[in-house]
Amino acid sequence: MNVFWIDIQTHTRRFQSLFRYLLQDVTLVPDRLNKIPVQAQRDMYLLLSRFMLYYNAAHKMDIFLKHCPPFPNAFLNGSPADIFVTELTDQLQKLKVEPVLLHYLSEIKVLQGMELRMTTSIRLKTCLYSFTSPGGPMYPTRAVRHTAWEALDLLFPVGRYPRHLISVFFGLLYPWYWPSSCWNLVDFCIKAILHSLQRVLLSIWLKTVKSKSS
User: Fold this and answer.
1) Closest among 148, 154, 95 to 126, alpha carbons compared
2) Which residues contact 126 (CB under 8 A, 6 or more apart)?
3) By the number of CB atoms within 10 A of the CB, which of 24, 84, 111, 204 ranks highest?
C-alpha cells in the first residue's frame, strides 16, 4: 500500500503496472486468487478499492465487485459494493494533493446507480458534502468545491436544491470569501452572456448563409 501512496503524494503513476498486475492477473483470475489465503484476499480487495479510481480502472468495477472474497460479519460489512465505497470514502478523506482529489471526484461518477446500504450512502454523502464548504476542516479550493458539488448532485439528485440553499447560508458565515465569490459569480454571468450571444450570432450567420445559397 505504501508504494501506491508514493504515487498519490507525487501525483504520478509509476506503480500503475503493479496495480494492474494485482487487479487483472491476480484478483480477477480465480485460479490464482484461490491460492492466496482468504485474509490476504480480503486485504487485497480493500487495498485495490482505495486506488482503483486513481489508476483509471473504474471500467472493471462490476467484475471486481463479483470477485469480492467472503468477509466475516457480512451483516455489518454489507455487500461488496458497501465495502468498496466505505474504503473509497476513507481514502477521499485522507487525500491532500488537489489534482489527485479532483481526479477521484471526477471518476466517482462510476458509483451512480449502485445499490448501497443507508449507512454507506450517508457516509459517502457526508464525505462529499465536506468538500463543498469553503471553511474548515477541509478548506477545499474552489475547483474542489465545484467538482464535489457535481459529484454530489449526480450521485444524490434528491435534495440537491435544499443542499445548495443551505450551502449559500453557511457561505455567508465566511465574509472573507465574499469578494472572491462575487467575482466568480460576475465572471460566470459574463461568460454565460457571451456564450449566449455567440450562439445567437452564429445562428443569424447560418440563416444568412442559407438564405443566400437558396
Assistant:
1) 148
2) none
3) 84
Q: Single out the residue of 85, 91, 90, 83 nearest to residue 8, CA to CA.
A: 91
Q: Is the pLDDT of residue 124 over 80?
A: yes
User: What 3-state DSSP class applies to 148?
Assistant: helix
The span from the CA of 155 to the CA of 15, in Å, is: 30
Residues with Cβ < 8 Å from 185, sequence gap 6 or more? none
Position 174 confidence tier, pLDDT thresholds 50, 70, 90: low
Cite the DSSP H helix spans in 95-159: 98-107, 118-130, 142-155
> Exposed, middle or buried: residue 50 (CB in 10 Å: 0-12, 13-18, 19+)?
buried
Q: How far apart are CA 125 and CA 68, in angstroms?
A: 24
Contact 56, 107 (CB under 8 A): yes
- CA dist 42 and 40 (Å) reads 5
Range with the poorest average pLDDT among 15-19, 64-68, 183-187? 183-187
- Among left, alpha and beta (phi > 0; psi -120 to 50; other), residue 70 is beta
